[in-house]
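Prompt: I keep going back and forth on a fold encoding question. Comparing notes only helps if you start from a blank page. Show me how you would write down a chain together with its backbone fold. Please set it down just below, with no commentary around it:
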Amino acid sequence: MAEILPFHGIHYNPAQVKDLAKVICPPYDVISPQLQQELYQSSEFNFVRIEYGRELPQDTGTANKYTRALAVLQKWQEQGVLTTDEQPAIYIADHSFLFRGKKYRRRGITCLVKLEEWETRTIRPHEGTLSRAKNDRLNMLWTLEANTSPVMALFEDSDRKIAARLDSAARGKSLLGVNCRDGEKHRVWAVKDPGVIRWVQEYLAGQPLYIADGHHRYESALSYRRARHGSASSGAGLGPFDFVMMTLIDFADPGLVILPAHRLVRGLPQSALDILRTALKICFSVEEYPLDKTGISRQIENLLAEGENEVNLVLYGLKNDTLLRLTLKDWNFVRLMMPYFHSELYQRLDASIVDHVILEELLGLSHDTAGSFLDFTNNIQDAVNRVDERETQLAIIVNPVKPGDIKSIADSGDRMPRKSTYFFPKIPAGLVFYRFK
């Protein structure tokens, strides 16, 4: 099954960069233009210059954000801003954060994992991807020859053996510590003991890994590997590009927070939404609730919780000052609208019902055209605000996916619709990374 390796991690040199909170950044896929600008201004050494640099009007095929990222990386290494660990290690990464008033700590193992084609079932995806994001990361690989941010993957530690071993390994002095201004904290330990590394390797070798976040990064790494070998089945031997950096997290980790991706519909003629109000009653029981403007987020959360174990949706924007709660009338009727080649696990997901029944069948938004009319958010209040501010017309609020659903879908060989999950918070880029040149 999964094959993991230690690696010579590259990270900021604490002797030169005193405040790591100013230099780490989110992964590329959540960096908006505004956030990118703020990160550039926060420090001349902010990792955004490598992870997701600015595009310029004069960019060409040979001078662009990727070549600039390479130049920055090389310069920082030469200046000693970035340092490389002499001894290979696996890295324990603790991420502490506050969510809805409660403190959490999520622990991961950052290491190299041997790339495997999907068909081997060693690495299992759970969600669909977009080609544009894959192309961006593939360009990064060709230019930088580095994994700048890790793929997040999940494993099972039902007997808590790895947890106990990591607790023991993390008792010493940490390699890196970061206290961020938003209350998040990071601590990283380098585990260099060959005995501990071997034990972790052997324990994880008996099971598959499940990609949680970073499907695009993994698929880009696969494409790069195939190209470097000349074919997917080349027998030329393993190279450093046959591995990808991952942070591995236990399915049962108490800090594993999975948020839903609520759908936001925009740009439709009002007549389409008027028709939708009537058409919904074909498939759903529709209950109307007067809007509680003093606590709309809590009201929506309570409505969603009433049907936690069944399809249960809340719509905002179809009727003034009213929330609509939708539950299925007849599953056997609704499943006729679902793609037959998907598993029943897939078909019963809230996101699948929304995408195939409401968006595709009732609104006529196909998989290819939906992107022009669709946006996503993991925050209920943000969804409500964007409807109120007329930035979007309709918010479709869904329940979060459970970790067990991710495993079940992946084990069945299926994938959830794209944007079904949001793992909170994202693993930052710039703590430790891997260069395979």
